[in-house]
Amino acid sequence: MGNCNLRMDNYDPTVSLNRQNFQFHYPIGKGGFGKVWKVTQKKSKTTYALKEMLKSRIIAKRSAHSVMNERRLLAILRHPFIVNMHYAFQDRENLYLVMDLMPGGDLRYHLSKVHKFSEEQTKFFVACLVIAFEYLHKNNIIHRDIKPENIVLDDLGYAHLTDFGIARVFQPENSNETSGTPGYMAPEVLCRQNHGFAVDYFALGVLGFEFMTGRRPYLGKDRKEIRDAILARQVQLKRSDIPEGWSLEAADFINKLIQRKPQNRLGSLGVEEVKEHAWLRDVQWEKLFDKNLNPPYKPPVADNFDSRQVMNGWKDEISSSTKEASNQGLFNGYFYDLNLQSEGVNYTTDTSKIEKKI
User: Fold this and answer.
1) What whole-number distance in Å separates Cα of residue 169 and Cα of residue 358?
2) What is the pLDDT of residue 123?
3) pLDDT tens digits, 185-199
């Protein structure tokens, strides 16, 4: 299960891709740099999600490294429980990232509708993410931005992990890597300490807490307030906190994930201790991996996104064109074509070589 098929992409593309290769239907999401569109590739008639990112916004937000990092990582990753890349290309003004289409929408959207998930639904989402973590961590990659917005559902209700902008190949000295979403960040990241794969399990615990109670364990208006809340006390679910219909095993699982000290956290010794916890012992891992189960949460057939949020503009004002031609060099190598990769171009399974490019 989850064997790595890592691929290197240090070749010069011989086939050009451009916007005209795709039929744009309508926006289905919005990020910090642009919109996500539902598109159909004209030649293959295959439908995808296409992330269109304005270079000037990326440069203004000093995020060129992040978008290049995401493309490089996605070029070496392929798994049924992550959102996989099929193409990447650029023109003078935009970057384009063509991904698996996940019509079920993200869990933030659904959480805003239902406020809480049931224990059965939460366990299913958690198990999907554990399978994704197993693949990433065995291949030395920390996601570092686990949150409901970055978990998307396919049409059946299986959860997939997306957004690898701040994911990293693990390095022992990484205290300078402090990006993330404060409400889901592990204490060691908030406190600018070296950190490992356990940060993803802390965020998984925050998700479980939020799905159970409708709120996160540590609250605050900004990063400092959340850090202070974490440092002030160790939050744990008490018996009185457990909603009707939830088990003690579920609360124990969450409590062990949100331990402030990484060495005390479930998952610090690897994925097997997570899978062996009493709450997950009945998960049929092989059937889940093969998607032969009946997901307990079914996304509606209709579009699963907030059209108002998608159509809203940005609060800041950034020019729609790059100001200096020299800025284009920041995006050298922003290209990917899965069809070329499948022909066997320069593959590797050595992640130590990948970090040099990232």
Assistant:
1) 8
2) 98
3) 999 999 999 999 999
What is the Cα–Cα distance from 142 to 357, expressed in whole angstroms?
16
| Residues of the binding site for ATP | 61
Q: Which two tokens stand for residue 314?
A: 């940005």
**What is the distance between the alpha carbons of residues 44 and 42, in angstroms, rounded to a whole number?**
6
The reported pLDDT for the residue numbered 14 is 42
Indicate the helix (H) or strand (E) that contains 336. strand 336-337
> What is the domain extent for residue 136?
105-289
Number of domains, the chain = 2
pTM exceeds 0.90 for this model:
no
For residues 129 and 269, membership in a common domain is answered with yes
Of the residues 9, 106, 145, 337, only one is catalytic, namely 145
Contacts of residue 319, defined as CB under 8 A and 6 or more positions apart, other chains included, come to: 56
Mean pLDDT score, 111-131: 97
Q: What is the pLDDT of residue 9?
A: 44
The torsion of the CA quartet 130, 132, 137, 140, rounded to 10 degrees, works out to -170
Q: Are residues 47 and 125 in the same domain?
A: no
For residue 184, tell me if it sits in a domain.
Answer: yes
12 annotated active-site:
no
State the binding site: 61
